[in-house]
Design a protein that fits this description.
Strand 12 and strand 13 form a beta hairpin. The mean pLDDT is 88. Helix 8 packs across helix 11 and helix 15 crosses helix 18. Strands 2-3-4-1-7 form a five-stranded parallel sheet. It has a three-stranded antiparallel sheet with strand order 8-10-9. A three-stranded antiparallel sheet has the order 11-13-12. The chain is of the alpha/beta class. The protein is built from 19 helices and 13 strands. The radius of gyration is 22 Å and the shape is globular.
Length: 386
């Protein structure tokens, strides 16, 4: 087992030992994409919606360096026809982009350090294979010499766009790396058996085109058919509340509101689990975000934004156009761009059928109240106090 290549199943084992809500049917979906033109999957959701749990689950299932049969034996995936065929049968590369940012002396070195560390680990595993400086070239060389292909799992893929939002040179380096891995259909098919990326933001656009057009994206705007695999469904929350002192109606008022396709209601796992663990309704998800980040975007004061927020605080659903959003945190030109960004960050919910945006629940509503009453918008603050 390594730090990046075939990392084992410790992360998922820890999750299963705790109160685990079974999301393993996602594995069956990914199994159906292996080796096909649908093999590149990107799921974007807000923080604390269970993205990393899903990534660790996939590592544990596919990684051939460990035996995960005991972890999955009593879970839903064990009943699927593809279960045994792929259980611990694949080479896996796992990249947590926030980890590489945290260990870099300078964030500008993140992309080069990432490639250096993963290539070094591959050199140790394949000493007889000619190794190159870049990760894509190294994987191509390994396939040419051994025939091996990899399942690549990238957690928080968009972290550089959030942490270095104004460093366009670094962002371009990163996009070039991802293009090298996933954009060349001939080489990608040889190197990559499947890829699964998680993030908060969808894949960045340049003009009207995605930077990596071959990925199938499942976002807060278009989650089907993966909406129920990230976040808790209403049925799952009802079951959790049965063994708790908290009533389901209270949990629903505070944490419900995200509607992801086919009218499926999704709850933030962090909020629900913290409330159940403490036997107390409270503001848990937004503690991991801080209202300062929300206040930044409210203070942009784009056209009609003040009025829209006041209306939503009163319970209104506001019609928006999400198509102009460029999937980054800097190219904000109009009110609808701000509101679309807040959907992806989890501060707003989106009704895809009506194309309307709204504040999802009491937990987030309180965060909006705090943000606008401590920001520049004294008019909004006065209306809220009244």
């Amino acid at each position: 087992m390594g730090n990046y290549v075939n990392t084992g199943n410790a992360g998922f084992a820890a999750a299963v030992r705790d109160t685990y809500v079974d999301k393993t049917e996602l594995i069956a979906f990914i199994n159906s994409t292996l080796g096909t033109k649908r093999k590149l999957t990107c799921v974007s959701r807000p923080r604390r919606f269970g993205k990393s749990y899903a990534a660790q689950m996939l590592c544990a299932y596919y990684d051939k360096s460990c035996d995960s049969s005991g972890l999955f034996a009593n879970l839903k995936i064990a009943q699927d026809s593809s279960y045994q065929e792929h259980l611990n049968r694949h080479h896996v590369i796992y990249l947590d982009i926030t980890w590489f940012i945290s260990i870099a002396e300078d964030i500008k070195d993140t992309v080069s350090n990432l490639q250096t560390k993963v290539v070094e680990e591959l050199r140790a595993l394949y000493p007889d294979v000619k190794q190159e400086q870049t990760l894509p070239e190294t994987l191509a060389g390994i396939h040419e010499a051994t025939g091996n292909r990899f399942i690549m799992i990238i957690d928080e893929w968009d972290a550089l766009f959030r942490e270095a939002r104004n460093d366009h040179t670094l962002q371009e380096q990163y996009i070039q790396l991802l293009r090298g891995l996933f954009k060349s259909s001939g080489q990608t098919d040889k190197m990559i058996e499947a890829a699964y990326m998680t993030g908060i933001l969808p894949i960045k656009k340049y003009g009207t085109q995605s930077a990596m057009t071959d990925f199938k994206e499942y976002t807060m705007l278009q989650p089907e058919p993966l909406g129920r695999f990230t976040g808790f469904t209403e049925q799952e929350v009802r079951r959790l509340c049965k063994s708790s002192k908290l009533s389901f109606s209270a949990v629903r008022e505070w944490y419900d509101g995200y509607i992801l396709g086919n009218h499926t209601h999704i709850y933030s796992p962090k909020s629900v689990m913290d409330a159940l663990a403490r036997n107390r309704i409270g503001n848990y998800w937004t503690q991991s975000e801080t209202y300062e980040s929300l206040k930044i975007y409210i203070d942009l004061d784009e056209d009609g934004l003040k009025e829209a927020i006041v209306q939503m605080l009163g319970g209104a659903h506001i019609r928006i156009d999400t198509g102009t959003f460029q999937n980054d945190m800097t190219t904000i030109r109009r009110k609808d761009d701000v509101l679309t960004l807040l959907i992806h960050l989890g501060y707003l919910a989106y009704d895809a059928d009506a194309k309307r945006v709204f504040i999802p629940n009491e937990e987030v509503r309180q965060e909006f109240v705090r943000a606008v009453t401590t920001g520049r918008h004294q008019e909004i603050a006065r209306l809220i106090r009244n």
